[in-house]
């Protein structure tokens, strides 16, 4: 059996922006037809080929932690923020406020305790040094509901520059897509390349020495098991199914599992 390492990526944004549909699309390569509201956090797991097509190619688990955006859970959802190896900031392209609020989400995660440290309309003065460089946390910004824009606004969004945006401030790539269309992240598209590049950065930050390109040693205690949010999974070759299921974590620390 082969042990597979994992990384943990937070998927955050306001309630209703489409985080659950997004994580399902990324993990399962198909749209989610009947999304529900996330209470606490749910986890989708996918396999990612690090630096696919090169001599450095290696398989990793990507845990996508879809954190519920309800304001009522602001003081308790911080339990899901540690550890954080990467962050996907999600906003609704039809709701400008959801993009402005990404700054609050970012400072909430960096603050670690899940509490709102910003008052009123105060904005976070982002220090790019926190996000630039191989030792800093990678960020990806994703705008959803592209299909709900009319053609004029859609073209404006796709042609716009990121000047002054949170993506520019963090040195992050930005993706705009329709989560109800599987082709949005089809292999070989610009957006799928950006997503793969982001996952590679997350993996490099946790497991690789950027100067030597060598993987850090990991200790499995003699066990050929891959660990995830759901415990240990034996993995044999590449026979693992692409979809590993969805796991819902409630803020009360009780756990419900809904395998699909």
From TrEMBL:
Keywords: GTP-binding, Nucleotide-binding. SUPFAM superfamilies: P-loop containing nucleoside triphosphate hydrolases. One of its GO terms (molecular function) is GTP binding. Pfam families: Roc. Belongs to the small GTPase superfamily. Rab family. Required for KRAS signaling regulation and modulation of cell proliferation. Regulator of KRAS prenylation, and probably prenylation of other small GTPases. Required for lymphocyte development and function. Not required for myeloid cell development. This is Rab-like protein 3. It comes from Anopheles darlingi (Mosquito). The lineage of its organism: Eukaryota, Metazoa, Ecdysozoa, Arthropoda, Hexapoda.
């Amino acid at each position: 059996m082969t042990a597979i390492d994992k990384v943990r990526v937070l998927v955050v944004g306001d309630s209703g922006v489409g985080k659950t549909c997004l994580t399902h699309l990324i993990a399962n390569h198909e749209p989610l037809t009947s999304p529900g509201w996330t209470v606490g956090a749910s986890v989708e797991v996918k396999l990612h080929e690090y630096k696919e097509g090169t001599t450095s190619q290696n398989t990793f688990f990507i845990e996508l932690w879809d954190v519920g955006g309800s304001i009522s859970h602001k003081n308790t959802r911080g339990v899901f923020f540690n550890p954080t190896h990467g962050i996907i900031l999600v906003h609704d392209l039809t709701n400008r406020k959801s993009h402005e609020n990404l700054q609050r989400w970012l400072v909430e995660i960096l603050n670690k305790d899940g509490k709102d440290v910003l008052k009123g309309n105060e904005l976070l003065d982002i220090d790019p040094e926190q996000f630039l460089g191989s030792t800093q946390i990678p960020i990806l910004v994703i705008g959803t509901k592209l299909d709900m824009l009319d053609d004029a606004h859609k073209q404006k969004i796709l042609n716009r520059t990121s000047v002054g945006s949170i993506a520019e401030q963090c040195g992050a790539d930005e993706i705009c897509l329709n989560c109800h269309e599987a082709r949005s992240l089809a292999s070989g598209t610009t957006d799928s390349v950006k997503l793969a590049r982001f996952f590679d950065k997350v993996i490099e930050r946790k497991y690789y020495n950027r100067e030597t390109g060598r993987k850090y040693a990991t200790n499995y205690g003699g066990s050929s098991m891959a660990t995830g949010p759901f415990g240990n999974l034996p993995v044999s070759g590449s026979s693992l199914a692409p979809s590993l299921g969805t796991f819902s974590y409630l803020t009360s620390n009780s756990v419900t599992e809904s395998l699909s």
